[in-house]
Amino acid sequence: MKWVDANVVRRAWAVVALCCAASSPGTVTDDGWPSVPRELELTYPRDHGAHPEYRTEWWYVTGQGEAPDGRRFGVQFTIFRVGLTPLTGVETPSDIALRQAYAGHFAITDVAAGRLRHSERLQRGGTPLATASLEDLDVRLLDWRIHRTEDDVLHITAGDRVEGIAVDLELAPTKPRVLHGENGWSRKGLEVTNASAYASFTRLALDGTVSLDGASIELDGTAWFDQEFGSSVLGEGVVGWDWFGLHLDDGRDLMCFVLRRDDGSIDPASAATLVDQDGDARPLTRDEFELTSSGAWTSPVSGATYPNRWSVSILDEALELDVEPFVANCELVTGASTDVSYWEGPVRITGRSRGAPIAGTGYGELTGYAGSMGGRL
Predict the structure, then answer these.
(1) Is 60 exceeded by the pLDDT of residue 376?
(2) What secondary structure letter does DSSP report for 18?
(3) What span, in angstroms and rounded, lies between the C-alpha atoms of 312 and 321?
(4) AttH domain spans which residues (predicted)?
(5) Residue-averaged pLDDT of the chain
(6) What are the Cα distances from residue 319, in Å, to 107, 258, 276, 289, 359?
(7) pTM for this one?
(8) Fold of 46-89+98-367
């Protein structure tokens, strides 16, 4: 079977980025893509599947686990889908598949070694090499796959022989699915068209193996799963974001993000979700939480400087958290796929909740420090 030239798909990805930048307010963008409606109702398992009527979508997993000898590892796995041309509603399934491109990022962080290894994939749709079910979570990109079983367990397999990394993980949700924002409608800018559909399993039991240079290592830990889709996600003037998915040791979970603007301010669409021990979710608006950064780490590869300390607070919960990376150098430079450099790595948490000590772990994602994300999403 003939492999698609990656340069062709990269050029298509660049065209889509330019179209995003040119999108104007309205229920349909100038080039025909619909925005996510505020009244959207998400239904599962169908909405775990792909939504090719929207321009972009991603399925994202992060997690931390410990080996039997106490070593700690972080794992990130993401598959992106991008629509190359809008659908008209009369396409056959094969037509829909041909109008998609897929990219993937996969990384393992060895905390003891202080090292992140990562891999990337890129493939045009329309062949068995890159597919996404329309009915449930089952996405394949070359030899990578994420799929859901009937009992909501997620199974991930991925590997890269050149980089010497592989994973085979099962992720079992320990809390119900969370819909962020307004029943899953997550605003990302001043215009109502700047929004995504955003759902998560915020806490999953992680079990399986990671492999480094052929050595298989059993892991037991905790993971996070996100799925988002939309067509014109970021608002005008937004250059990037700081995002965190945090697991607190009292059983609560916190998703929070700030959208950074080109004038140095924080966009008012920044938001958070606090999930209690039973899975009940409380959405938080920009004025209900604080996320500030400090410190600096400069990448020797991209030259970008990222913050490396963060403070998170929710005043009416008397919750104050300090967040720091386990490993400073967790930058992914993805010139062979999405052509974006960003920081994504495992973090640890200390702080206080209503005066009592609290701790935890999680993952952070920092974009726009090596170049604006404006026009890419």
Answers:
(1) no
(2) H
(3) 5
(4) 56-231
(5) 91
(6) 31, 18, 13, 10, 11
(7) 0.91
(8) AttH-like fold (2.40.370)
